[in-house]
Amino acid sequence: MWDAVESGIKPCDLAKEALYEHPLTPLTTFKVVIFGYLGITFIYWIFCFLRFFVQLKDTLDIRQFYINSLGVTDNEMQTMPWASILEKVVQVQESRQLCVVKDLSAHDIVMRLMRKQNYLIGMLNKGVLAFSISSWVPGAGPTIKKGPNGTRYCLMLTKTLEWTLNWCILHSMFDRQTDKHTLGCFVVNFCIRNDFVSDRNTLKKRLTVVGVAMLLLSPFLVFMLVYLFLRHAEQFYNHPSTASSRRWSNLSKWIFREYNEVDHLFKHRINSSVTHASDYLKQFPSPILSIIAKFVSFVSGGFAAILIIIAFLEESLLEGHIFGRNLFWYGAVFGAITAINRALVSDELLVLDPHGTMSLTIQQTHYMPKKWRAKENTEFVRMEFETLLQWRCRGNLYCYVVHRKDVAGRDGFDLCNSILAHLCSTKGGKLIRLHLRNWSTVPWVNEILQFIEDFTVDVEGVGRVCSFSLFDFQKHGNSKYASPHNSSSTYRSSQGKMEKSFLSFQTSYP
Questions:
Q1: Closest CA to 128 of 370, 496, 452
Q2: Distances (CA, A) of 213 to 40, 160, 206, 439
């Protein structure tokens, strides 16, 4: 086929050459796997297609509420601040009684919107989601404590773990009882089911089923590579240097997010910190890496320049082949290598100031562990910081290959993260047992349920919420962070997170 295309003598029908009349003949194991994957993908596509219409109906209802009740037009929706929207909702509440139990404040409304997210933020802040894994395992974050034998417990929140917590715990622990009142209004109680907290074996079984599903789906990992290529091919082609840039990991986003901080306000804050965070890591230049990058960039750039000169002199020469590839192909490869390596070269005008750049980063992330203080220029802090700000190419592989996004509603299936971690520490038959234990281990489940019991409060008109989101200084206050009360270390937030969240909330909703 290629000879026919290049010579231009023989007519060549690409569709006839590329498509087979009987693609399943002969039927091999590999074709069965592909056919099964396509079947699963088709079922998921149908599910997303039907879900679109359900979400469209809800979106149109919200739009009518904005226009008819709040008096906000379509154009105003795009630019009106979120605080102004909440203020209008509070004003409508006073006249229309959206909640028959009490007049909801902006704080009450945000607590209802952030009900499940606040629990996840609290679990990370209190170290519930810390695992005894090696720090080099993909997805492992900062070390928060050490065991009796020197075991390091690192925070971890992969896309799969986030999806699992949402589906198995946060979406399942609330009831859906609806009470009808005389005014014709409906109130969803959002109470935590008693059987959910008491019947721990059911939760363990649910997590075990999820672990089995992840293990069975692991052979489809190769197809995620195709998705990765299609998702980012155009971006890397036009901007090859983005492959060597950095971005915050999924774990870091939930570590930095504060109680009652809605998504778009958090994105505005966290996106503003990426530049300063990248500048901080540049404070630790590697002379060897920079020299190698300069050399590779010089060589590849030289070849790319020669090809450009050839194109100016005689364009037809680029159609020549070297080792089976024409010069156009070599030009694209050398150009990409030059762009990627150029980003790895240290800036000669860079002013080394680790303390200053870290300070600028903290102003946006509001995250500064005690063990980092006055140690910004140490290798230890740099290594822990790198677990939060990862290479973009690594993050893409990790988010889209290991954690396929937009699957099953919100996030995706972790196809090999747990398997990879266990392969590093076990052999053969222990793999499946350890994989399942990763999801249904007794201490892990007990700590999560204990957290839900200890940090849940019932607010009239709002339902059960994480008590940290209530900004209860008497119960969770820490006097070291200007709280008027000083509670026990068991119940106060780590690193003054509740106090920081309160100040941010007051700033966002004056």
A1: 452
A2: 13, 12, 11, 11
Domains in the chain: boundaries: 287-342
CA–CA separation, 383 vs 427, rounded Å? 29
Task: Write out the E strands in 120-245.
Answer: 130-131, 140-146, 152-156, 178-180, 186-188
Rounded to 10 degrees, what is the CA torsion of 263, 266, 268, 274? -130
Tokens matching residue 235: 């971006």
Query: Encoding tokens for residue 399?
Result: 């988010």
Q: What is the mean pLDDT of the chain?
A: 78
Which residues have C-beta within 8 Å of that of residue 433, sequence separation ≥ 6?
none
Question: Measuring CA to CA, which residue among 98, 55, 57 is closest to residue 188?
Answer: 98
Q: Is 130 helix (H, G, I), strand (E, B) or coil?
A: strand
| Cα–Cα distance, 489 to 296 (Å, whole number) | 53
What are the pLDDT digits (tens) for 115-139? Answer: 999 999 999 999 888 887 776 666 6
Break the chain down into helix, strand, coil percent, rounded to 5: 60, 10, 30
Statement: the pTM of the whole predicted model exceeds 0.85: no
Dist CA 82 CA 160 (whole Å): 30
What residues does 192 pair with on adjacent strands? 174
Does residue 265 contact residue 82 with C-beta atoms inside 8 Å?
yes
Q: Among candidates 449, 467, 451, which has minimal Cα distance to 459?
A: 467
> 443 — phi, psi (to 5°)?
-60, -35
